[in-house]
Design brief:
- The chain has 402 residues and is α+β, with helices and mostly antiparallel strands.
- The chain is 40% helix and 21% strand.
- The protein contains 14 helices and 12 strands.
- It binds a DNA duplex (18 and 18 nucleotides) through residues 8, 35, 37-43, 45, 58-64, 103-107, 184-190, 218-220, 243-251, 286, 296, 298-304, 335, 337, 339, 400.
Length: 402
DNA sequence: TCTGGGGTCCTAGGACCC
DNA sequence: TCTGGGGTCCTAGGACCC
């Protein structure tokens, strides 16, 4: 079963506003949740049904949305409350199974294998749909099927506040008739290529020779053929997994072409990334720096370290080297990002013969002390002098801590 | 006042090894 | 006498998701 909150950010903002005495329900007017245009992050994160009727699309610019929908109201996001509502939903769903995969803040997969009959499953889906609305005040779509892919496709059919099934004998009528762009994992790059091959619907894709797709798209081709045929053997991953990478990036309020300033921002980003890394009790072996220039061209450089580390100083030194190595003087930079990859649990670290343990211990103590102060008094309570000028660019979101 | 930020997975090419 | 074949690791970039 796949449970998907309808217009999650907008619905959750709406009920939070009503709770705080708002006279309007933003679900009933043309409205969107969006970023801050003055910070150059003005895109649509969620839209009301009325906004959708105007043709507003998620992820387009607020500027574009307003052109389509004059008088559109724009509200900021609030991840702290989204996390709360997401948790409430999760708690309710736990009454049906403890095998729940939290696919994102507003989507869950439920392993309902213990309900053997299709009718029972459907009734449970209807019950969840009704209870969420009555007890939590927002609506969900529920998709019921015999694997994750079909459940996800089903929950996407007609919205809002609906329960759909997609059993094997329904695939032809309910899924094969849809445009191929509707298939999960087919994005804006692949769809035009399929159109060129005269593949317009999911049914067309299902009936295409698998080998042809494999030759043209590799693994991705095999996967799309299987998905089109309703084949998916993946498990509901209900146990919380450790992250494989941790990153932080920021779009700058204006383009920057001063490397000293970029380094300050890099420093503040690294501070946050390594803090989160240590909270996970993990070490990283790969450091990656990303730049986006004013023309939206992305470049990244990464380096594998000889020893895994969580030290802010060590990771920042590498990040700065990567930045200096890739930055071409005069380039106007729009976005800077740092991420760490190839993570391992701290306990499994192997101490290198060449590591300077005394130095490492000192750095570790420093990091630990700073972490404890941030933990107690808030992320921005203390910072390194080297990124003081840039701290304002980086926000630390409380919901990341759990 | 035009285009976020957090992720995961895959691929191609080069370096290097035997 | 003008150049194999198999493999691993690393890096840069791309595609996709919400």
């Amino acid at each position: 079963m796949h449970v998907d909150v309808n217009n999650a950010f907008l619905s959750w903002t709406a009920i939070d506003m009503l709770k705080n005495g708002s006279k309007i329900d933003i679900r009933e007017i043309p409205a969107v949740i969006g970023g801050d245009e003055s910070k150059r992050s003005g895109i649509v994160l969620a839209k009301s049904m009325k906004a959708k009727e105007c043709g507003v699309k998620t992820a387009e610019t607020i500027y574009q949305a307003r052109m389509k929908c004059p008088g559109l109201r724009v509200f900021p996001s609030n991840f702290k409350i989204y996390r709360q509502y997401s948790n409430q939903l999760y708690q309710l769903l736990l009454e049906y199974t403890d095998k729940i995969e939290r696919f994102s803040i507003d989507e869950c997969f439920l392993d309902m294998t213990h309900y053997l009959m299709n009718d029972t499953l459907l009734n449970k889906g209807k019950e969840i749909n009704r209870r969420v609305k009555e007890e939590l005040g927002f609506t969900v779509n529920v998709g019921v099927a015999h694997n994750k892919l079909l459940a996800k496709m089903a929950s996407d059919f007609t919205k809002p506040d609906r329960v759909h099934t997609l059993f094997e004998n329904e695939i032809q009528n309910k899924m094969w008739t849809l445009p191929v762009s509707e298939l999960f994992m087919l994005g804006k790059r692949t769809v035009p290529k399929l159109h060129n091959m005269q593949i317009k619907t999911i049914g067309d894709l299902a009936k295409t020779n698998k080998r042809i797709l494999q030759d043209k798209f590799g693994k991705h081709g095999v996967m799309m053929w299987e998905y089109a045929n309703g084949i998916d053997n993946s498990e509901v991953k209900y146990e919380k997994e450790k992250p494989k990478g941790i990153g932080n990036s920021v779009t700058l309020p204006e383009d920057i072409s001063n490397i000293d300033k970029l380094e300050e921002i890099l420093s503040a980003l690294t501070e946050q990334v390594t803090y989160r890394l240590r909270k996970q009790n993990m070490l990283a072996r790969v450091v990656n720096v990303q730049l986006r220039n004013k023309d939206f061209v992305d470049t990244s450089h990464q380096r594998k370290l000889s020893n895994a580390t969580a030290s802010t100083k060590e990771i920042l030194e590498v990040a700065k080297e990567l930045l200096e190595q890739m930055y071409r003087k005069g380039t106007r930079i729009r976005l800077v990002g740092v991420r760490v990859d190839d993570l391992t649990d701290k306990e499994e670290m192997q101490i290198s013969l060449f590591s300077n343990e005394e130095k490492n211990e000192k750095q570790e103590k420093l990091d630990k002390t700073i972490d404890a102060l941030k933990e107690k008094y808030g992320y921005h309570f203390i910072t390194r002098a080297g990124n003081m000028g840039a701290e304002g660019y980086i926000q630390f979101r409380k919901e990341d801590e759990k």
